[in-house]
TrEMBL record:
This is Glycosyltransferase, group 1 family protein. Its EC number is 2.4.-.-. Residues 24-189 form the Glycosyltransferase subfamily 4-like N-terminal domain. Keywords: Glycosyltransferase, Transferase. PANTHER family: SULFOQUINOVOSYL TRANSFERASE SQD2. Pfam families: Glyco_transf_4, Glycos_transf_1. One of its GO terms (molecular function) is hexosyltransferase activity. The lineage of its organism: Bacteria, Bacillati, Bacillota, Tissierellia, Tissierellales. The keyword Nucleotide-binding does not apply. Residues 190-345 form the Glycosyl transferase family domain.
Length: 374
């Protein structure tokens, strides 16, 4: 099949790897023999892909076509639809001239990165329109009137509308009054494997952007309550963000600088190594549409501790770790202590097999092709 995948951007350091999940899925499709073009249109005052206007190159057999447009009002969240429509039409015309009309257009983050009418117009050519919503703003109902209108159009007129989790699906249904939504979770990268390394340290790991929503401060406080005097226990934090200084100050205040390791933002390969060498992943966000670090930990055979506000699977299996019904530091601290003292109850092979069965490239590819072909 000839497939256009539309994502937020081409992932690079300058945009915090935005678009990485979308591009990984595009590469997966190309690996299975499909003719795939990854498309992104960036409206931003200074961030661009390679250069302003068009960029066209190849990455792992995926044809990459981007258009970077200087857009000084982007941060004011002002939607100048006629202008955006003109740019999108120009970009898609360019893609047509290069590659012809596709069989499938798969739009990720449909609420906020495209002009729905422009994309949906391709149905006139017999093109199937598939959408996948990932956006946390949809989950928390923080989208504006324009974005809601885009969402409603895609839900109503696309051939298949997918959500990455049940909680996000429920939010979409509430916003659009339509229940014609399917669930297709994110995919786990093949780099995440069970580690052969043996350590005498017990390591908790937390991964993600250092934002208030992720509540790394609560993870640090919970760790400090139980393990400040446990010499063989460490907390590893992977990620970067606005809260880094505050989190480092919190660690210093509690005098646990020797126990908390700030790794910074790492590559996917480096992250997989650090996660696989850890013992437990902790994720305690206020809200998540889908928490990829959880399935990455499972692929490494590592149990997780998470909050009930994070939706990864519909039915929780305690053989994969613990889900906390509540959001206090004390509750988190108690579960961290419990898993530390009872770690032998977890089977690494069972945990990894669960991840591969549900989130591996093959598992997601087979589900995606079903939606493309039906």
């Amino acid at each position: 099949m000839k497939i256009w995948v539309i994502g937020r951007s081409y992932p690079q350091d300058s945009n915090n790897m935005q678009g990485s999940f979308e591009l990984e899925q595009a590469k997966m499709l190309a690996k299975h023999g499909h003719d795939v073009t990854y498309i992104s249109c960036i409206f931003h005052p200074f961030k661009k892909v390679k250069n302003w206007r068009f960029a066209n190159f190849t990455d792992d057999n995926v044809n990459i076509i981007t258009y970077s447009q200087i857009y000084t009002i982007e941060r004011m969240k002002f939607h100048f639809e006629p202008f955006k429509r003109m740019i999108w039409k120009k970009l898609l015309k360019y893609v047509e001239e290069k590659n012809g009309i596709p069989d499938i257009i798969h739009v990720h983050y449909p609420s906020n990165i495209t002009v729905a009418d422009t994309i949906l117009s391709y149905k006139e050519y017999g093109v199937k329109i598939i959408c996948t919503e990932h956006w946390s703003q949809v989950l928390t109902n923080k989208i504006d009137k324009y974005e809601l209108n885009q969402l409603k159009k895609y839900v109503k007129y696309s051939d298949t509308f997918l959500s990455v989790s049940k909680s996000l699906k429920d939010s979409i249904i509430k916003l659009t009054k339509s229940d014609n939504i399917e669930i297709l979770p994110n995919m786990v990268n093949k780099n995440f494997q069970i580690s052969k390394e043996v350590s005498d340290k017990f390591i908790f790991v937390a991964v993600g952007a250092l934002t208030k929503n992720k509540q790394f401060d609560k993870i640090i406080e919970a760790f400090n309550q139980q393990f400040s005097n446990e010499k063989n226990c460490k907390l590893r934090i992977i990620g970067d963000g606005k809260e880094l200084k505050n989190l480092k100050n919190l660690v210093k205040k509690n005098k646990i600088q020797d126990k908390v390791i700030f790794e910074g933002r790492l590559s996917r390969e480096e992250t997989s190594k650090k996660v696989s060498e850890s013992d437990v992943l902790v994720s305690f966000s206020k809200s998540e549409t889908f928490c990829v670090p959880i399935i990455e930990a499972w692929a490494c055979g590592i149990p997780v501790i998470t909050s009930d506000s994070i939706s990864v699977n519909d039915i929780w299996d305690n053989r994969l770790g613990f889900k906390i019904i509540g959001s206090t530091v004390m509750e988190l601290s108690n579960y961290m202590s419990h898993i530390f003292e009872n770690y032998e109850i977890f089977d690494k092979k069972y945990i990894r097999n669960y991840a591969i069965s549900n989130y591996s490239e093959d598992a997601i590819y087979n589900k995606l092709i079903y939606y493309y072909s039906r």
